[in-house]
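As described in the Methods, two query proteins were run sequentially through the folding procedure within a single session, without resetting any intermediate state between them. The first query and its resulting C-alpha cells are shown here.
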Amino acid sequence: MPNPNLGLGAAMAAITNLENGEECLNSMQCKSRFCALDENLGKSVCMHKHSLPLNAACKTNDYCATGFCYNNVCVPMARAGEICGSDDHCETGKCASNSILGGQRCQPGTCSGCTSGAWTSASNGRQTQNYAICKYDNTCTRKTRYRCGAGYYGAEPINNITNAAYISCTACPANATCAVGDNFTFKCNSGYYRSDTACAACPSNGTSNINSGAITDCYISPSQTLSDNTGQYKYDVKCPYEL
C-alpha cells in the first residue's frame, strides 16, 4: 500500500507489484520486471520480456518473442547462412560478409554433438524441443522452444519462442486443418469457409477451395451436374456465391 503522505508521483513510483497490462513508470514496479511502451495503448505497461509476436511494433530486442527487433518491428532471428543485419540478429552471434553466398550472412561455428532433440508433446496442445545452437565462438547453447502441435493453432511460425507462457494453442475447429509448421491459424477444408473462429459449410450445391475466408469464396463448379423441375443442367463457368 503506497504511503498516503507521499505525493501521487512518488506514491506510484513506490509500487512494486504491478501485474502485466497495468500502467507503469519503470521495470522495478512490475512483477515481471519489465515495463515497456505498448504502441496500441499509447502508454507504458508491465509485460513479460520477449512477449510480443512476430511483426509487432517494438523498441528493443527485449520486446519480441523472436528475440530480435529490427526497424521497430519484431522479426525472426536468422540462422547460420541466412541474411542478417547485425550480430544480435543471428542465433550464432556473428553477422559478416559471405563471399560465397553474397551479402551479410550469419556465420556458423564448429561444434561437436550440437544437435537438436525431437519435438515432443506437452500440455495444452503445445510441443517442446531441446533446441541446440552452435555459436560462432564454437560453443553449443541449448534452450527449450515451443510450438503448437498438430490439431492446434495459434503460435507464430517462428523458431525462437522459448517461453511456454507466450504460446497459446487452440484446438482446431471442426472441418479445418491445423498442420504442424503451418498452424499460426487454422485452414478451413474444401467446401467450407471461415466464419469467425469456426468453419461453416458452403450453401447447398456449393464448394470452396481450402482456406477460404468468406462465404463469397464459395462457388458452384462448372463440372457439377444440377437439377430442378425442368431437368438437369450445368453452368458454363464457375458460379460464385453472391450476397
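Immediately afterward, the second query was submitted; its sequence and C-alpha cells are:
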Amino acid sequence: MSLLFDLSPLFDVMLSFLLLITIVYAIILNKKLKTFHEARAAMASLAGDLDAAVRRAEEGLAKVRTEAEKSGTRLVQRSEAAKHLANDLALLEERATRAGDRLEKLSARGRDELRPFVRKDASGAHRSGPARTTKAPADVDETSPLVRALRGLR
C-alpha cells in the first residue's frame, strides 16, 4: 500500500491539471456562448426586418395587381372603342370612295356634255366658248351651275 500512497500526489497533480483544462475550456465556451447569444439577438432583429420587408413587398404586389387589373380593363375598353372607330372609319372610307366614283362619273358626263362648247385654237389649246360650227345639244340643262360657270369664262 505504500506504493499507492506514493502515487497519491501524482494523481492530485494530474487531477488538478485536468480541472485547470476544464476551467479554461469552460471560459472559452462561455465566451463563444456570449458571442452566439449576441449574434442570435442580431439575427432575430434581422429576421424582424426581413419579415417587415416581406409584408411591405406583399402590400406593394397587391397594389400592383390592382393597378394592373385596372389598366387591363381600361386597355380592353380602349381596344374595343378603337375597333368601333376602325369600323366607322372603314364605313366612311367606303362611302367616300362611292361618292368619289359618282363625282368622277358626273364629271366625265359633264365633260362629254360640254365638249361641243369648247373649241381648240391653232396651238391646240382649249378655249371656252361655243364652237362655231356646232350648237349645244337639246338635252343640256342651261340652268346647271357648271354650264353657267363655263359660259362665264368666255
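DSSP finds two helices and two strands in the chain. We note this only descriptively and draw no conclusion about the first query from it.
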